[in-house]
Amino acid sequence: MKKLPLVNLTAVDNILSPNYNENINLSSSAMSVFTDFKYQKAQVIEADTTATQALQLMQKSHVRMKVAISNEEDFLGIISTNEISEQNIIARLSKGIHRDDILVKDLMIPKFQLHAFELNDLVNATVGDIVTTLGNYKLRHCVVLDKYNHHIRGVISSSDIARKLQMNAGNDNEFSFNTIYEEAYIQ
C-alpha cells in the first residue's frame, strides 16, 4: 500500500453541486428526466406511518412524494404532499377521526389507481412525449415500471421536468404535468 498525500483546504471555498443547467428541452430523451431507482434510492415510507409524521419526513428530506410500502416492503402506492394536504386532513377530522389516527394508507394513491410508463417505452421517448401523454393529468408524479423484472424502476416528477425546462412559477409546487403541457404547448 502507498501513503497518499493530504492537501490543505485553506484556499478552498466552494462545494461542487450537480449541474442543473442541463440543456433539456421537449426533444430531449425522456431518460434525462427519469429518476432511476437503480441509481438513486427510492424515497419510501411505511403505509402505517401517521400522515403528520409523513409530512414532517417529506419536509425534512425536501421531497414531495414517497413510495408507500407495507411492513414487508411491498409496493402499495404513492403519497405526496398533495394527498397530505391540510384540506384532506380536515376532511378526515370532520368524520370524527383523530389527527393521529390518519395514516399514509388512508390518504395515499393505491397502486390499483396508478398508471405507469413502461421503462422500455421511455428509452425511445422524448420529454415532449411525456408532457403530451400526461398533459391532461393534474398529477405531479408518474411511476415507471420495469415490466420485464416486475418492479417499480423509478419515477418522473413534473417539478423535475419544469426545473430542467427552466420554467418559472413562483413556486414549483404548482407544476403538474397539466401546467407544464399548457406552458410548453399552448403559449
What is the mean predicted local confidence, pLDDT?
Answer: 88
CATH homologous superfamily, by name? Answer: CBS-domain
User: What is the share of helical residues?
Assistant: 25-40%
Strand arrangement across the biggest beta sheet? 1-8-7-6
| Overall tally of structural domains | 1
State the helix count: 7
Please give the largest β-sheet: 4 strands, mixed
How many DSSP-defined strands? 8
Q: Would you list the SSEs in sequence order as H and E?
A: EEHEEHHEEHHEEHH
Strand content: 15-25%
Work out the radius of gyration.
19 Å
* Low-confidence runs: none
- The CATH class assignment is Alpha Beta
Notable features of this structure?
187 residues, alpha/beta, CBS-domain, four-stranded mixed sheet, 8 strands, globular
Could you walk me through the main structural features you see in this protein, from its secondary elements to its overall organization?
- Helix content is 28%, strand content 19%.
- The protein is α/β, with parallel strands linked by helices and 187 residues long.
- It has a single domain (30-186), classed as CBS-domain (Roll), CATH 3.10.580.10.
- The longest helix is centred in the first third of the chain and has 11 residues, at 51-61.
- This is CBS domain-containing protein.
- It comes from Thalassotalea castellviae.
- InterPro entries: CBS_dom (IPR000644), CBS_dom_sf (IPR046342).
